[in-house]
Queue: 4 jobs
Job 1
Amino acid sequence: MKKWLTKGALLRTISISLVLIIVIVGLVLHTDWGSYSALGIGELIALCPLGYLETFFASRLFIPRAFVVFLGVLLITIVLGKVFCAWICPFPLTQRLLARITNKFFPKNTPADTEAIDTEVPKRARLDTRLLTLVGVLGASLFAGFPVFCLVCPLGLTFALIAGIVYLITGGASLGLTFLFIPVFLVLELLFFRRWCSKICPLGALYALISRGNRFFRPHIDAEACLSLSGRTECSHCYQVCKEHIDIRATQTTKTLADCSKCRDCSDVCPVHAVSFPVLPKKKPDAD
Amino acid sequence: MLKGGKITRREFIASGIAAVAVLTGALNFRVKKLLCRPPGAQTEKRFLSLCVRCNRCVEACPQRVIEPVLFGGLLELRTPWLNFRKSYCNFCHDAGGLKTPLPPQCVVVCPTAALGTLKLNPAFTLNKETGYSKEVRTFSIGLAKINTDFCPQHCDVCKKACPYFAIELDDNGYAFLTENRCNGCGACEFYCPEEYVSKTGEIMRAVTVVPNGARLDSV
């Protein structure tokens, strides 16, 4: 049985919980910190890049301040990569925990944590269905005149559910029947779309697109230490553990590494500690 | 694609159905009446297209009059509205003082300018004689509407509550509104002691604020 709470997983859980706690404290104490859609203090904010693009298309208005914030988020993502998915977004963690529970009670369900990973490396890049959702969502926003994905975004719904419960206790807002839409949709997304992150999420697609420009903190594999690359055994732990299905043993292009959320699972799982995340890319014959 | 890719046919169909359901549901299932939006929300259409439902204005409001919509239609869900039964809007006057008014907190914190930048009039000072200048209405929330059928004679609660001196009593002792002074701040509705049940079963007050959106783009 593999150890499931590695150092990386623990750090990630702490990071995700911290953001969640900040959001909830802000909600209860009536600060202006906001939620996952826009988090910040006063005029200093981080805005959901997908939210910005959606409102841009829906309203067809150029809002200079929002655009500057959007550029800021772009810059952070280029420097740090797709860290949002592993270190901030609570959805994948909740989904894995929920899968663990449901698998316990209904063992006949699909085995493994979330999805079975085939060890064989695909020869050809698969069609990224998330990009289709991204284009679809932006197109729908343009047509409908409101940010379409914001209505069903699991992050927004998670926050709305917490807010609803808080307001129910404190009497901060009146709840109607439509409120039920929030938990129902959230549960649907959590339970029935087990591949939400890798196949549907347009926000992940957008972050992956942006982090194609990322050059820092990229996983680096020591070819001499690696059991697989040096030909000693057929070890593929790092590939099997990767939630983004990246095989770091193969020569990487910026396109495939763009999906790396810097979760450090590959580094944790490597039996010979051959994987590291250096700040600057180490010199290596890299196909770009 | 369905077999080679990791998305199954069932998931694909389910997501398609969900997307269609959400779209049609959002478009058809709406709040029956317009809601009062925080100051700076211009037309309802513009507001709904820019709001990312981040809840910041709700949290930033010092008056705690802004609430998220957790009822009604899917399209309005989680957007902010002003509940004048709980409190009223003071346009955060205390923040900048009356001589150098700052934009309201909700406008300051809005990340996408769904609550847009307000054109603040330098001559925006409180005058006991005339109330606020007429330009104030360019960023008003709505317009108070007095239901004379239920408004009690000689009651001057709303008159006393109004910071803009927009409500006065006529010769018969009934309240009437000077429209160009009304900012839709909701103080009159908040203090109004007279409640009645409308034909649709809603609890109404003798004075209610009708949102601006209705006047601006007649949704």
Job 2
Amino acid sequence: MEKHLTRMGDGKLVEMSSDELRHDLEGGSEDAADKGKIEPLSRSEIDSLFDIFTDSNKHVSVAHGNEVVLTDDVGHFRLIQDNGGCGIGIPLNHMAAVMLHERGYGMDTTPYTAVDATFKSFKPIMPYFQQEMEIIIKNTIIPIYFCAMPNLSAYYYPDGPFPNPSDLLPAGKVKEALEAQEKAVEHLTKDLIFCGEKIDQIGCDSFNFDTVGSAGDGDFLATLRAVEHLKKNTNMGIVVGMASEFVLGMHGGFEYRGERLAGMYPNEQAKMVESAGADIFGPVINTNTRKSVAWNVARTTAFSKSCSEAANIPIHPNVGMGVGGVPMCETPPADAVTRASKSLVEIGKADGL
Amino acid sequence: MGMPVPHVMASGMGGIRAAGDLVAWMQLTRRMRINNAKAYVAEKLKVAPKDLSDVYIMRDIREELDIGIITGVPGCAKGIEARSNIADLLDIEINSVKHYRKN
């Protein structure tokens, strides 16, 4: 029986038969349909994925004319940082590293960010970011966005001013845990708006809320409120990229425009982000390291297609380490990455990645 | 190689090597889906949408329109000057260009 080289979700190279591959593709699609209450991939879409995964070439690509726009939430820092954040530690200044993404890599857009990419950390040093961003946007051509994480967790003890719900809930202090989150959301919203308005002052083109929802529904709510404000009061394009496929109900009662945020999957998240006024939405679908890349890519593709059909704005699924069908490892193999890339664009109806 | 190179090679439009930045501007300023954004830019450049990712075709078009090119040719528009020409070409408001012209 013919065997095909593929990988597991942790990156390990494995051999699978045609039957095993097809079984995993169907399984991933069915799992997305079950979890997200969406349509599974059709027979012909599974067949197309099967062709991508049985292509004996090491790397694959989309057909001529099917290319899409690339956005990114790391950018220049992948070249500079050497602090355990998967960077490669080249001693470049930020301007040079951004220009390498534009002129060296051929990226369609790229972000400007910093170590500890949390808006709470950025707030006291926004004049520094204004100065550096001003230099960068005057020397680049592609869209550059200011990018960081809302990270509501930074507003709780021991890092922030409010009691930590993760301590309060196990102690049975439910009311106190809910109140702490409600207060933290107010502070986070103000900080997101503060950073957005400051960077808009120097003519920044776009603002990227990255890893949204990492601390649950409150994190998502603060972001939606800030997006709404910044779209009304600035001239920046807004990108919203999620932290995971499912909005955790850390509070459980938070709503935006009458919709409960906890438990939302990508197709529902997209509608919220679009109604807040964002221009591009980046859904995340988590990689399961115990399943094959084929299973993970089929699952991601089903979610992406459903999200794209639900939205009226461009959809750019996250396809980095441990999300979007890409293996969860520090050095994702390009054979797996290119298969996820092609699948999401040509079957998952992505407008970008 | 990181994450960008596999995606650029597999699915990307090539940025200023081709017309990826122009299509990206339409998504960011007009919320256009990929096919609409490509059609809009292609009409402005008087090419077919599939040509927007072709570095051979786009290299000369970008120089003629002075909207920034990938190679370091002296005298061609660079940075905010090229972005300013892009805003005019695509008939869009780009925040950095608006700020630059105001000052």
Job 3
Amino acid sequence: MRSANGGRQVAVSDPEVTTSPASDDRELVQQACAGDLAAFEELVRRHQRGLFSYLYRMTGNSSDAEELAQQALVKAWQSLRGFRGGSSFKTWLYRIGINLALNFRARTKPTEELVESMPAEENPAEEFRQRQRDVAVQAALAGLPRDQRTALVLSVYEEMSYREIGAAMGKSVRAVDSLLFRAKQNLRRLLAPARERGIV
Amino acid sequence: MSNRVMSKCSEVKRLLPAWLDGELAPARRDEVAKHLAACVVCRAEMAALRSDRQALVSARVPGPSSFLLTRVMAEVKRTRPARIAMPIPALRTAVAALAVVVGLGIGVLLGRGLAGSRSPSDAVWPASYTEPVVVDVYESVLGGE
């Protein structure tokens, strides 16, 4: 799906692009390790949207998310031969992205850029409500501690299991369970003002 | 509401997020489901959790620009994977140890070679050479007092 918005694609999810059998990924990784650039390009195609989406939720703006996604993908290429296959390629890639996001210091306020980069709905009233929703959700996410936000984003948007989240974050399943419990409690509080105003 | 039910409720509330995420073991899952069927308070909590999740997924997220792939591949073509991994950790350790031994060996050989050569004072300096003036650092810093 294309928009007239700086060449950006907008969608809540795109299963055709984001899902990829881990076994296929492994084959592509092997080919890429042998120097097959087309194989690595296919890995980028498969995971760029999911990785970008995660980084967008963490940073709150698309230019920072894109810069971090680029760094993560290039870093993945550079250390591809260090990938042991103990987890899926996706989990390993997200681990790189998570580390970059955790060390990242935002240059702009998280919700500032939302207004510019989102596509317009045809119905102006609905577009207004949707923008309010986008901003409220992003602000609520930004209000969570980073590790809670990371776990929540990976769970809700990337639909990762607790085990996968643990592998990506370097934490135990029990720790992930605890992070998500607290994240959801905090989220309720952070969304409350928007809920009272009927935005979400 | 009895104490037993209350404690069960707090237990179930703690488990509800994992229950909704499908992360509970079957026995626990059934226990929570049974409790939910009988407890209106916990059902309300479950509905609230679902509503929060719905709020999250209702927010839009932009996709990456069409240039991301191009930029990544341009960078990739300029670089190579950083190192060739050695599959066996013991092999890596052995290689590292060998490198240290070789390094030490070279160091010893070089040391012996230098000991056998003339000292700098034996060197024949050009006639114009004059001994450099050594300035006392402390003196210069403290103003010579």
Job 4
Amino acid sequence: MSSLYPPILNGKAVYDLKDQKYLKIWQGPQHPGVTGNMSLELDVCGDQVIKCKTHVGYLHRGFEKLMERRRYINCFPIVCRICVPEPDTNEYLFAAAVEELLGIEIPERAKWLRTLNLELSRLASFLMWIGGQSGSFGSGTVAQWALAHRDYVLDLFEEWTGARIYHMYMTPGGVRGGLPEGWDAHAQKVLDGVYKLLDEIRHVQLNNAIFKMRAVGLGTITPDMIDKYGIVGPVARGSGLGRDIRKDQPYLIYDQLSFDTITESGGDTYARTVVRWREMYQSIDLIRQILKNMPRSGPLHISLPNVLHLKVPAGETYVRAESTRGEYGYYMVSDGSAFPRKITVRGPSYSHAMALLEDLAVGVNLADIHGLMLSLHTYPPEIER
Amino acid sequence: MIDTIEILKKQFEINDLYHQRSNLCFITGKKEQLLSILQALRDLHNYTHLVMVTAVDWIEQNQFQLTYLLHNYESRTDLGIRVFLDRECPVMASIHHLWKQGRVYQQELHEMFGIDFPGSPDQDIPMILEGWQGPPPMRRDFDTKKYSEETYSNRERNHHEPEQYMKQILYPEEN
């Protein structure tokens, strides 16, 4: 085993590239196994990875800088673009941070609608992820099924908000509109379809011998690594830590819904897959609870003064929410003007894909690297805002 | 959380206590004592989760504000520790040995704000802006529009009025 690794001279690994023992491979930035544009610089010996370095920078759009030059309401349409597959968490957190600094409370009905929106986008994001996770281990069938059902969820969003990906639904102060007529029946039909799909995924993927052989024991995260690397969300829950912000620090109306924190004890790729697969069931259950209990009438938005001249009192705050990858947060500093002084987006992929992945990848077979990366559920757009 | 801050106040020079919510507080610490404060919070007071490190540019006061946000999973509270650095030569002690993700935050702050964290691994390797020649772009005095006008050549473009243009293309005989 030790002979796999190159000799170390003066604290640096020395590769003899001429002896044909080592090879440098770039995986990405365009790679089907990466949800976005990110590349891994892999040093391999045979087919085993001995060093991994994450490179980002292919997607940098400078959102944090852009937001400093825009009024609060002008920031609203760009925040959702920070994370492509799950934009609604950004919308909610931006609105929540502005509302907290303004000291306003949104109507009850808007809270229910926001929660519904967040849960539906969680389902869409998980469906996209399970497609990638199965596809990365060679099972393209599940990927096709899951992405088709994600499209049905996006149809629901289109009917509800008018947009499929970037909904721009949660404006500061409330939401843009209520549910259209007949939407509930359409939603129930889509949820039934996804429920049936999840049952099938258990047979095709979770009980699949090949998937188990490759996923069990891949990228094991022990509980003592959790705080050292800042691991959050389903990755932490896959290692047995019951941490869920929806339960621990309930926001919106999560305290009025009944659900349990889902944990698995394996800590490997398989355990993380099972956690997310079970959370999709949970998400369907939560959406059904919301549709059953939500108020159907009442104000959707509180009246704000002219938003183009809106000045936010000086102060700073941090708000967080549970996204599909874990803790997502917005840190907002206001200096009392109409422009935000600084907004920092804390994406969970930041620590998962940069610090954690580089250490987990060592010793992994080259063919399993993208399966490992997807099991951490990394979304490069939120790393480099 | 208040008890923790009271204990910290006995050991360290801490001021500007700012209560944002019942579970979120901000305090300002001394730059030299920051590592000890973070270590005490992590090891003695259960603030084990480093949520993020970020910087705010207060160009009017000629200083950078660094915010270290810590989370306590037991009491479910957040504590933000602010330190102020001189904007002319911003140097700060590195926390990469306390939390593994610390170096990633520091690498980004070094690139975007030009704050130096001596000893932080890979600090000088460009993270996002490969081949960047200009000043650190997240500083307030960096003007993106001016920079792009100076750096990149202006492309000449033909602008067409869509309705007129399509009429010319589709029905040339009518014009």
